[in-house]
Amino acid sequence: MNGAQRIPILKVGRVLVVPVQVDMDDQTVIGLQERILAELERTGARGVLIGISMLEMVDSFIGRMLSDIAAMARIMDARTVVVGIQPAVAITLVELGLELRGVDTVLNVDEGIKLLRAEFGADDKGDEDESGFMGELNSFGEPSHLA
Predict the structure, then answer these.
(1) Cβ(121)–Cβ(86) under 8 Å?
(2) Continuous H helices in the chain
(3) Of 8, 80, 13, 84, whose CA–CA distance to 47 is shortest?
(4) N or C: which terminus of the chain carries fewer CB neighbours within 10 A?
(5) Is the predicted pLDDT of residue 137 greater than 60, yes or no?
(6) How many of the other CB atoms lie within 10 Å of CB of 116?
(7) Which letter, b or e, does each residue of 79-97 get, where b requires 16 or more Cβ atoms within 10 Å of its Cβ?
(8) How many CB atoms lie within 10 A of CB 11?
(9) pLDDT, tens digit, for every residue of 109-124?
(10) Per-residue pLDDT for 143 more than 80?
């Protein structure tokens, strides 16, 4: 199983939750991009929430790919939010001159879900299921009983 296949993509309401818990190399991030776009097409999700709190290092390629994922998702009528950026990762992105254009960033999953809900409406189809499930997610996007 390659690195991208080890990263789950969970559909919660109208949002794809992508908790990245493995180090990403170039092939992993390319594979992840392809999987996210395929899931957007398959599910019709309106938001993508990418959790990177476990990433300790991001290079220029991964930073650029996060921007590309957001741009491609936008073309597919979905908004992208990246959550859990570590201070060292933020410093590296700024030092590399990467702005992550088109990518909203927030501190945690709860704030990311609030931002996405505000984008497409809290009464949108699927939110009843989402509210119960999101209460059980920890900051890594996994059910809290598995953390």
Answers:
(1) no
(2) 26-43, 60-75, 87-95, 109-120, 127-134
(3) 80
(4) N
(5) no
(6) 25
(7) bbbbbbbeeebeebbeeee
(8) 16
(9) 999 989 998 887 754 4
(10) no
